[in-house]
Design brief:
Helix 1 (about 25-60) runs antiparallel to helix 4, helix 2 packs antiparallel against helix 5 and helix 3 (about 100-130) runs parallel beside helix 5 (about 170-200). The protein is mainly α and about 325 residues long. The chain has helices at about 25-60, 60-90, 100-130, 140-170, 170-200, 205-230, 240-245, 280-300, and strands at about 255-265, 265-275, 300-310.
């Protein structure tokens, strides 16, 4: 199975061209771009959902219906994303001095709730079938054709959404791309179940539904783990990378207490920079701005950098 990639900032991201804009304009431009992607995906996901649900209802296949429920998460999440991304682009205010960016991360995390509900429903239906409470599905050639077509559509969606997620640094798009990967694996499983059922092995349908539930649960776990790292303020930029840039500024004696937090395109940094004790305050202030400019030039994803000026520790130099 392909492992999802959640972006880190050890290298500059492709959004460098937005750095010349003001912070507010950059946030609005990014918000519009993400919402355009989500709007297009919503149309595609609704079409896939309707198709799967129709085939599932006509054939009575639990695996197909479970896959349709999984696809319903895609459409629901797209609608949620359209709302939340607009809110996340709002500028800082008195109550949110660091901005509203984490609302997008919260939205990405919320998809795990939808996936959990879907997984429970799929498991319930599979149990009913295994205990003889559901009828054996009727499989047609159209079932195979539809499932193969939806796999193709989802592969195109994953490619496009992953590319745009990396370009825009969006957790919402990344989370959606991740769980759409799960859609592909569930669809492949469903196709296998349809083949088995058509061959007279009816138990493969509920067994495939159980496997679909497993894929859904795995996708939810991956999303929860990735978004939790952001919400828990996990390090974003490696300390050694920051040190290398800071120590490359003439006049700087070193640095320590480096901390970064935030998301892939909205990073907050603070650190302590060692300057010569005899350096005048105005020169030290100017040099700290040189350090900040160097850091932001290397990592334009840095929304703000707080630099504490201090002399080096005794006997350090």
């Amino acid at each position: 199975m392909l492992r999802p990639h959640w972006p880190t900032l050890t290298k500059s991201a492709p959004i460098t061209s937005l750095h010349t804009m003001s912070a507010g304009d950059k946030a609005l431009d990014r918000s519009r771009a993400v919402r355009r992607v989500l709007a297009g995906l919503l149309v595609a996901n609704v079409a896939v959902l309707i198709t799967k649900a129709t085939i599932g209802a006509l054939t009575g296949s639990l695996a197909v219906l479970g896959d349709a429920l999984h696809s319903s998460v895609d459409a629901t999440y797209n609608v949620l994303g359209l709302v939340v991304v607009r809110v996340a682009a709002k500028e800082p205010d008195e109550d949110h001095p660091y901005g509203h960016r984490k609302y997008e991360t919260v939205a990405a995390a919320s998809v795990t709730v939808f996936l959990l509900l879907v997984m429970i429903e799929v498991l319930r239906n599979a149990f009913n079938h295994l205990t003889g409470r559901s009828a054996v599905p009727t499989i047609t050639a159209a079932s195979f054709a539809v499932m193969l077509a939806t796999v193709g559509v989802n592969l195109l969606v994953i490619s496009y959404e992953t590319r745009e997620a990396g370009r825009l640094g969006s957790e919402v798009l990344l989370a959606d791309a991740l769980q759409t990967r799960g859609d592909v694996w569930t669809s492949v499983t469903v196709i296998g179940a349809l083949i088995g059922t058509k061959s007279g092995i009816a138990i493969l349908d509920p067994m495939a539904a159980l496997l679909v539930a497993g894929f859904i649960g795995h996708a939810g776990f991956q999303i929860a783990r990735a978004t939790t790292r952001i919400l828990s303020d996990r390090i974003v930029i490696a300390e050694s990378d920051i040190e290398r840039i800071v120590n490359g500024v003439p006049g700087v004696l070193g640095c320590h207490h480096i901390r970064t937090r935030g998301s892939s395109d909205h990073v907050f940094l603070d650190l302590h920079v060692w300057l010569p004790p005899a350096m005048p305050l105005t020169e030290a202030h100017d040099l700290s701005h040189v350090v900040k400019d160097r850091l932001i030039a290397r990592y334009p994803q840095i929304a703000d950098a707080i630099i504490h000026i201090e002399p080096p520790p005794p006997r350090k130099f």
